[in-house]
Amino acid sequence: MAFALKVLGSAWDVSWHFMWLRDDLAPPHLLNSAGTAIVVALTIIHGYTGYGVDRAALRLIQWGTGVFLVAVPLDLINHRINGLDITSWSPSHIMLYVGTFFMIAGVVRGWFMGAPPGRERTVVLGAFLAFFLENVHFPEQHQEYGILSLGAWDNKVVYAEKILLDFAAEQMGRPVDRIMITNFTLPVPDTLYPVYAVVAGLGVLVAARMMIGRFGAATLVAAAYVVFRVAIWPLLTVAGFPPSAVPFFLVAGGLLVDLAFALRHPAVRAVVGAAGATAGVYGALIAQDAVMGPVYGFLKGQEGLHGSPPLATASAVWAGLGLLVVWLACEWWAGRRQPIEARVIATATP
Prior knowledge:
- This protein has 350 residues and is an all-alpha fold.
- The chain has helices at residues 2-17, 27-49, 55-82, 91-114, 119-137, 141-154, 162-172, 178-185, 192-212, 217-238, 249-260, 266-300, 316-348.
- The radius of gyration is 21 Å and the shape is globular.
């Protein structure tokens, strides 16, 4: 329930901040706060009872919750001092993601280590990993909302309230023009979106495939997140909030990760998988831009929209190398666990 409130609040939060001037008590923040209150209570219960967690899982949950709770007042102070925080990639925001990262990682580990084998274990583990993917991908939503808000500006449609645009323009020291709108909607380098999506997003899917241990696991985890994004798209837009590009490319990346596990040698699997998944994601981003741009334009009555954030294709090399490092680390960790489990089974078998 806490994770569900977090996802609903965060999904609404990005769209809200592309429309309204920031407010500490905005409805999306209240949803997140309700989820945080549940998390704090459960963290205390886990620590007192030890129920559902081993030592490592408990420490991950406790440290994650602690980092998140420290990040909240730091973010409020940041806004008080610096005014509007133009990007979701700011240090105080990243602390919130990092705290949630460790929090969910602890829950995943607790369930992975303690749940009895069976369908329930697999389904719930997949759900936790989908929440994990959502948190990792969250900062990318700035560019996903930003690209359609910039396209709307070019079509003489403005989603943001005048007070928000004036506030942002004053911070940038320039009038409300296209340069200012571009800096507001796409404030980070074009290389960041695809590189982060491949290294961090596909890295989560590699870990998901290894932990669940079944073909299709990475694809289904990615699809679960994408289906959620598709479901909330009409809910937000009908309510008058800005739309976002949906990361359909993640499903293609998950499928390529699953296919790579047909290779049995870990190092070969990592090299071939990283190269293939990176190329596939960049290709899927190009296709998504070409196909979904006209679809978004039709739905919003606008022309010339893009279906995905700007893509710097030359960054594919760095994305592939980053994913290779993450994949090899996952393979090393999986290989490190297997001999221990084998010895336990051997000594426990009559």
